[in-house]
Design goal:
With 572 residues, this protein is α/β, with parallel strands linked by helices. It is 42% helix and 7% strand. A 5-stranded parallel β-sheet has the order 4-3-2-5-6, with helices on both faces. It is globular. The two termini are 38 Å apart.
Length: 572
Amino acid sequence: MAVNIILPPSTLSLWHTKKLIYSTQNRFRIMSSASKSQPQSVASSAVYQVPGLDSHETDSTADKTFERYSSNTAKRNGKGVSIVWFRNDLRVLDNEALFKAWVSSQAVLPVYCIDPRLFQTTHYFGFPKTGALRAQFIIECLADLKRNLMKKGLNLLIQHGKPEEILPSLAKAFGAHTVYAHKETCSEELKVERSAARGLRQVVLSPAQGNSSRSSSTHSPKLQLIWGSTLYHLDDLPFSVGSLPDVYTQFRKSVEAKCTIRGCIRLPTSLGPPPIVDDWGIIPSVEQLGLHCEKVVKGMRFLGGETAALSRVTEYFWNKDLLKIYKETRNGMLGPDYSTKFSPWLASGSLSSRFIYEEVKRYEKERLANDSTYWVLFELIWRDYFRFISIKYGNSLFHLGGPRKVEKRWHQDQKSFETWRNGCTGYPLIDANMKELSASGFMSNRGRQIVCSFLVRDMGIDWRMGAEWFETCLLDYDPCSNYGNWTYGAGVGNDPREDRYFSIPKQAQTYDPDGEHVAFWVPELLPLPKEKRNFPGKSYIEQVVPLKFGSSNKHHSQRSEYGGRHYGLRNR
């Protein structure tokens, strides 16, 4: 029998928020209860594609967005050939490197180098630098980029090898006067930039291969690096990077008061023609990269590429109208809609921060502006902050003592670490989050903070082991956010005030009160009463370590703007 419930206006907003927070949990609950005799098999089969649109809808959404961001007013005044070296900017929309290459040439050669170093091992502990799930995501990003470039009259040249060897060879073969690329900030990427620039200087081009009709002497192609990975441009900051505030709040207030966010770059409808290429290359499979193929059979399955990214923005902001409650729901842990889930596409550069900003402003103009619409921008500024911090502090982000050279004692016991990595600690909240990471390449923002705190504070394990394992697994991995956030979580970050302990009982009671998340990822807990799922006692595996502070709340540091939400849109 249907029952109509009429809520008074004063309670409607709160009811609506709670309903949306648990909408996906309820969906999984319904699926599980459909066959009470087989709850585990039902739970283990639940996969949610992100975005949740079909291929026709995603294509249509992307095409309409490209059309809105097209402009035929730009003048093309260059000569010869230019190269676009795609790196972590796997998009067409708001890609300044691509735009400048088009303006400065008669033909543009887009290229992506599959660098074997990306599939080697991490620096300290020898984990795979790129796990199979992120590799598959990048492969999908490349396939989508190639397709979108072809729609613009170009293509994508796939090359296997080191960029510093490939780019000079291509520049010589095609007579390219300039290689355009987006600039990175961390040491490994900077080393590649320097080597590529050095290699290009050794190439000698004839006068006819320049980008100016007045050139009368031989010359070398140049590497033109462009800043395009942040909401606020590096050149627009009201201070030098060396003077960057060590407290996020000071940074945020300063840029909000004194900086203007630049508009998205609008490209012409056609970017062709490309130079004549005999073989554009083939995008490899995961197996061809030396990895074993892994399929997501549970949890969220993210689709790689700009088309999927633009569709997710439309789905979350406009179709589902979830932007207006983002601040209230963002600390969820189960399902696709408690947060934006933009971070994998931001990390691959399939999605521009400035595009998100412009969509938020359009939403505020056409629908409403509130704390939630602002909070998406607040999180993007956090992402900017860690990018700039990586310039200021360099390799100290990867050192045991962090930017402040803090001296703490951690151990590196492999057996203990493996209990954490494999989700076998005896604490359901930890185990569920770690199993989700391994199975899907994603973990909620709240989950990341909890498992970090447990590893470094309760287990006493070297935080870099956790950071490098995240580097392996995360779809949304980038060095600035990952290592910046782990230094914060370990209490060795640049802000000395941020040194927080997360009580597992309190986190479980607050953010997974019915045990829906732990039951989904640890299905043997599903038959237990809801209040027992996070606290199963002897009916679950033995706990590897006692909690440092148990359920005490007195050790929680005062809430700051960091507020435990340091990943920002890295994983929202």
